[in-house]
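pasting for the record
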Amino acid sequence: MDLAGKMILPGAHDAHMHGIWYGVSKPPIALDISYSNVKSIADIKEMVYEKRKTAPKGTWIKEVGFTVGHLLECKDDPSRVPRKTDFDDISPDHPIALYDFSLHTLVVNSKALEVCDVNRHTENPAGGEIERDGNGDPTGVFREFEAQGVIMKKFPRLTDKELKLAIQ
């Protein structure tokens, strides 16, 4: 291509995508807890509570898309994020896994911690953080993929039906 002495610069391109993960993060596989659907932790709790009513006991409840900066309870307090204590009361028999919009933060409830054998003695994996309270107990917040792996190793595999739905 003859540019007649003019310069051309490449644009910004994403060389990969997570197509199946995108499908897994949307209904009917997961509830959509993005800003257009939820504006507070209370809204997320309501969606989880409704899902719990129809989910068999012990079934994981998966949600994707919250943005801390858009949650009413978190807007004025940068230290405030959803934690296990926000969800333990509404779903003690269902493990809950809530991903933020970036997928770099995962929030789980106490049932998920129990199922995954995560406690105060669980070490932070290299490259990730398991947030802890003042007593050293996990708060249910897992930052970065390495820490999320502690939960994901016990996360139920997608069924063939779920994979097909995600791809569609």
